Amino acid sequence: MMERLLDSDGGSRMTKFVIRRMRQPDDYAAVAPILNTIWSEPTTAERLKEEEDKIPPGKLHYDEDGRLMGWDRPKWVAEDGEGQVVGYAIASRAPWTEPGTLFQTVVVQPDSQGRGIGRALYAALYEWAGEVKASRLIDYIRESDESSIAFAKRRDYVQERHMFESVLDLEAFDGGGLYDSIAEAERAGIRFVTLADEPGAASERKLYELYKETHPDIPGYAGDFPWFEEWRKWNIDSAGVRPEWFHIAKDGERYIGAVALQQNEQTRAMYHDYTCMLREYRGRRITLALKMLAVRTAISCGVPYLKTHNDSMNGPMLRINRDLIGFRAEPGNYKMVRELG
Question: Selecting from 3.10.290.10, 3.40.630.30, 1.10.3720.10, 3.50.50.60, what CATH number does the domain 165-331 have?
Answer without folding.
Answer: 3.40.630.30
